[in-house]
């Protein structure tokens, strides 16, 4: 496995929207698609939604076919990574001739590179403070090109808006975990987290049609919205996890079920690729 991209973060320069960097990636690059091999590519909840929809699969089927899950040592949370394939450990969505076959729905880490987004939040602040670092992977020849981008231009060009917004909602959930001091979680808690954040179709079936009583606490218009809009469903799933695990427990009974120690004290969401 290649070193984690965090190893190549250039933290000497913190970039915000008007700051610039020089980079270009195109099929003419000698290294084209080299970076789509042997990756530890962590999938965020919204990455999974976009990819499963792109491939016409249920989230459960997508997760079974294309991902591995492990419990993060520090966080105690389930982490979903894309399984590489074949002897050359390539991304399952890479066509060696033409490149990324899911380009319009590629994960946020693929879109953000060569930047790494840091989203800092605190109790005292509304929203998040975001900034970026350049990730200088040594085999990437894109840094030899002469195209200059501002961070704002890069975000627009790569369609990062909806990804960043959904990743921030996920970050809010992780922050709630930190604030209540939840460390290791038991199997039931991990399952709740996985269902609400990653298995959006499983959550829909369980929440809207299953034995869960939580849906009776919601007004009909909310239930209608999450039944027809997958983005709303995912946001609701993450809020449901937050309420159930990190805000005094079950929405219906209010019983607390979290415990342990904080694992992400500074509230910074790291890059996933
Ligand atoms: S290594 Fe860099 S320049 Fe080459 S394809 Fe990957 S991102 Fe593009
Ligand atoms: S999803 Fe696309 S861009 Fe990302 S690693 Fe796979 S082939 Fe490369």
From TrEMBL:
Stored InterPro entries: Puta_zinc/iron-chelating_dom (IPR005358)
Protein name: YkgJ family cysteine cluster protein
Organism of this sequence: Dissulfurirhabdus thermomarina
């Amino acid at each position: 496995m290649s070193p984690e991209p965090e190893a190549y973060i250039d933290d000497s320069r913190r970039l915000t929207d008007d700051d610039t960097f020089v980079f270009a990636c195109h099929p003419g690059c000698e290294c084209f698609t080299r970076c789509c091999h042997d990756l530890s590519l962590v999938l965020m909840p919204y990455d999974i939604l976009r990819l499963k929809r792109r491939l016409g699969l249920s989230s459960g089927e997508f997760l079974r076919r294309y991902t591995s899950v492990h419990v993060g040592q520090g966080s105690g949370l389930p982490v979903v990574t894309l399984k590489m394939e074949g002897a050359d450990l390539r991304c399952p969505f890479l066509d060696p001739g033409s490149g990324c076959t899911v380009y319009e729905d590629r994960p946020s880490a693929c879109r953000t590179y060569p930047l790494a987004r840091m989203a800092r939040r605190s109790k005292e602040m509304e929203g998040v403070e975001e900034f970026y670092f350049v990730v200088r992977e040594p085999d990437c020849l894109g840094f030899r090109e002469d195209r200059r981008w501002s961070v704002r231009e890069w975000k627009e060009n790569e369609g990062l808006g909806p990804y960043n917004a959904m990743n921030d909602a996920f970050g809010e959930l992780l922050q709630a975990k930190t604030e209540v001091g939840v460390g290791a979680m038991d199997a039931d808690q991990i399952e709740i987290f996985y269902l609400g954040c990653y298995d959006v179709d499983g959550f829909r079936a369980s929440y809207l049609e299953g034995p869960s009583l939580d849906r009776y606490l919601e007004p009909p218009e909310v239930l209608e919205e999450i039944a027809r809009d997958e983005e709303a469903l995912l946001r609701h799933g993450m809020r449901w996890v937050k309420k159930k695990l990190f805000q005094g427990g079950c929405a219906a009974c209010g019983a607390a079920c979290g415990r342990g120690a904080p694992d992400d004290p500074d509230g910074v969401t790291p890059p996933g690729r």
